[in-house]
Amino acid sequence: MKNLVGACVFGQSGGPTSVINSSAAGVFLEALQQSNITAVYGAANGIKGILDEKFYDIGKEDKKELELLKYTPSSALGSVRYKLKSAETDDTDYKRILEVFQKYNVRYFFYNGGNDSMDTCNKVSKYLLAAGYDCNVIGVPKTIDNDLYGTDHCPGYASAAKYVATTMMELNLDAKVYDKPQVTVVEIMGRNAGWLTAAAALANHKGLGADLIYLPELPFDSEKFLLQVKSVMDKNNGKCIVAVSEGIKTSQGEYVAEALSKAEMAKDNFGHAQLGGLAVKLADLVGNKYGVKVRGIEFSLMQRCAAHLASKTDVEEAFRAGQEAVKAAVAGETDKMVVFEREMSSGRYACNFRLMDVAAAANTEKKVPLEWITEDGTMLGKEYIDYALPLIQGDCKAPLEDGLPRFAKLKKVLVK
Amino acid sequence: MKNLVGACVFGQSGGPTSVINSSAAGVFLEALQQSNITAVYGAANGIKGILDEKFYDIGKEDKKELELLKYTPSSALGSVRYKLKSAETDDTDYKRILEVFQKYNVRYFFYNGGNDSMDTCNKVSKYLLAAGYDCNVIGVPKTIDNDLYGTDHCPGYASAAKYVATTMMELNLDAKVYDKPQVTVVEIMGRNAGWLTAAAALANHKGLGADLIYLPELPFDSEKFLLQVKSVMDKNNGKCIVAVSEGIKTSQGEYVAEALSKAEMAKDNFGHAQLGGLAVKLADLVGNKYGVKVRGIEFSLMQRCAAHLASKTDVEEAFRAGQEAVKAAVAGETDKMVVFEREMSSGRYACNFRLMDVAAAANTEKKVPLEWITEDGTMLGKEYIDYALPLIQGDCKAPLEDGLPRFAKLKKVLVK
What we know:
homodimer; Rossmann fold; 13 strands; seven-stranded mixed sheet; alpha/beta
């Protein structure tokens, strides 16, 4: 544990969320107050900005705009998807990072992202340590996928979940409006973990959810799906609403969207598959089988950037995660990630902030526990509702200007 | 002008909106106060509920729930798409309506919808008049398309426009996050009139909009489109965001989505077109031409049911439209539609409520004035911003319960 004096660099990585900038605000506002931190830099496009020596001077920003970052979705500094090779294979990037850090006297490095980004933190901190360069590295978790190991939940998840639940409620009302059979299939993000799709069950908790929910945690069977849809339609005046994770796979481990394409190609004899996302494909499957009106809907980018529907709990925790990262680094911690620990006392939720070895989070995936899924595999149980409900509490969003959100406007002054 | 004593029936028709239930609340709460109105009925699924004699007794509902209708999207009574034949061709439906109205002593009929629904109002009121049955019929306008003739704007439009503008701002931030070329195409509702797609320009007004906006008011040329996208990408670090109306047509009057399918089929030699909406097709066109990352996004049903983003101005005007319809009918008016008249005094917007012959609104379409579109056909001018901005002011939404909207829950007690 070393107390260092020097500049800090913060970078954003991976897919943006509604609250990644809230963590940025936490890092920046805390770092600007720390006397050991001599300059606060934002790396343009994450690790790429370090390699390219492209830093924004956060000290030149208005404090009011930094505060507005809390309510501004996406990645204000720009993001990147870049996986560092292992230093043993190719140490070019690491040498360059060390060179840049030395040049700017960077003694604190904060990186905000999911498991790949935590891997980056871990590799960089290990390399710098081996090179004898003192620099405290702390990871700040972020992912709408909620799949990071070692933390009760991830910043970004709750706001996306609140979007999914609220929008499912609204769609539920819309999809039932005509006195005719109609099947609606909604596709929700999440390649390997079904946390975000599970959030559709929060809408069920309020009586306006999906009739069937399919997560990637369980294999998907198209024939069974068709029967389950039929069974709901029979009970429900011909109506059925399905929430499905983009990442569902067949029992052979193939993505269902791809499997359906292949089945179409085989039928077609000429090897043509129809375009269209999973929602449209599954909706068409139902439409062709039962001759009912169907609609496939994708929540697309909206589910990760709808900051107007952010959870206040999420925004505040994301901000705190940034602050805590800075405090820990200044106190001498390194090679760690900030994690959330849930405390429930007399039914009230509280979130405690702890540190964990960043290596433990790197490249791991936390999935929805199978025992939280009902026996027929189409719904979440009470365990999930109890888990998720405290996280989506509270409203908070950017102030309105002309009836529209006033997002942060950074000057982005480049460091010479 | 006759002052009548009897029951009233209210029905909802056509595609739902975020505020159609706000008009229902206006009709119900006003009608329940009128001493000339002896019973307040809600027709299940619009005109179909009248033909089927399926009425909900609104007098049995809790007033608190009727108030919550203001913030509840979709059609609480159920909607219908049903175009009455002309009475000269086939008067079966009309005889049935008269029979039902006589049986329940219905002396007031309010119908909420777009131009087809106003046609229904007109036909029913003409028939009842000819049959010598006294019943005052008033149309309450509603459509996210904003294409009704004779009214400054339509209830439902502003909330959908606010969704489009807010979401475009959020997507704008998300779509620019990586340091790589990316073209995003967003498809917005509106078959023949581009009002809702135009709302993307409100996001431009706040600096975070679409680079190119294509309305159905002008013919669409794919080659020109590709050049326009390229020109934006060249100026803009490879980024381009396009907002496009689902209803854009070629100069031959063919829907662009269909024309693109045919072009694919011709190329394919086997007559196969790829599925997928217009957004995906246009995005693929760009991706194939320029080899850049593309994404097609549909606002789908969300744009018409996202009540959590409703415009307060819209919610209140929709409510007033319902109230005014009842007041006018009780005062003896019939065969009319409530219209909105804009009043601007010292830069402040106000909305006045008037009546117009419903025949004038029936089956007509008001389009975006061509002079509001910039010369190259890809953007809206200041006239549109001045028109639309006052309409999207103010926030209002359902109270939260467990962090999620508490929508109205009607008992829907059937009238025996």
